[in-house]
Amino acid sequence: NISIALARRGKKVLQIGCDPKHDSTFTLTGFLIPTIIDTLQMKDYHYEDVWPEDVIYKGYSGVDCVEAGGPPAGAGCGGYVVGETVKLLKELNAFYEYDIILFDVLGDVACGGFAAPLNYADYCIIITDNGFDALFAANRIAASVREKSQTHPLRLAGLVGNRTSERDLID
């Protein structure tokens, strides 16, 4: 919804799913798009053989979509996949083509790989609900922002309460 709202306001938007289920962009595109990690595997990890149209798909309201994907359970590091996604998108100059880039990350896993998108951000806005698990994840992301802001011009812009009528814990 946020991606669509921003696109409808004239922004050029890229939504990047960073979940191993690779379902973040499904409602925008109508299908499970190939993941970056699957595309890299097909190209034998030759980054120079990957083109934007291989990994960026047009979604609803003109929102461009990318899915990082991830390894099978117990077979690798999801944070590594996110890092590789950031590396590839940087190689494709994708970070400079958009007004807004949204990363749908697993917030409670704030390792270096999952925090890699913060290296390219000016602001971080955390979408959360009022539940303990979501706020635990929000706190982990906020800690990552605090850490990254030591060396990058990054600021936490705030939290958005999503699908919640209660705000006591968010506040």
From TrEMBL:
<keyword id="KW-0479">Metal-binding</keyword>
<keyword id="KW-0547">Nucleotide-binding</keyword>
<dbReference type="GO" id="GO:0046872">
    <property type="term" value="F:metal ion binding"/>
</dbReference>
<protein>
    <submittedName>
        <fullName>Protochlorophyllide reductase ATP-binding subunit</fullName>
    </submittedName>
</protein>
<keyword id="KW-0149">Chlorophyll biosynthesis</keyword>
<dbReference type="GO" id="GO:0015995">
    <property type="term" value="P:chlorophyll biosynthetic process"/>
</dbReference>
<comment type="similarity">
    <text>Belongs to the NifH/BchL/ChlL family.</text>
</comment>
<dbReference type="InterPro" id="IPR030655">
    <property type="entry name" value="NifH/chlL_CS"/>
</dbReference>
<keyword id="KW-0411">Iron-sulfur</keyword>
<dbReference type="GO" id="GO:0016491">
    <property type="term" value="F:oxidoreductase activity"/>
</dbReference>
<keyword id="KW-0408">Iron</keyword>
<dbReference type="InterPro" id="IPR000392">
    <property type="entry name" value="NifH/frxC"/>
</dbReference>
<dbReference type="Pfam" id="PF00142">
    <property type="entry name" value="Fer4_NifH"/>
</dbReference>
<keyword id="KW-0934">Plastid</keyword>
<keyword id="KW-0150">Chloroplast</keyword>
<dbReference type="InterPro" id="IPR027417">
    <property type="entry name" value="P-loop_NTPase"/>
</dbReference>
<dbReference type="GO" id="GO:0051536">
    <property type="term" value="F:iron-sulfur cluster binding"/>
</dbReference>
<keyword id="KW-0067">ATP-binding</keyword>
<dbReference type="GO" id="GO:0005524">
    <property type="term" value="F:ATP binding"/>
</dbReference>
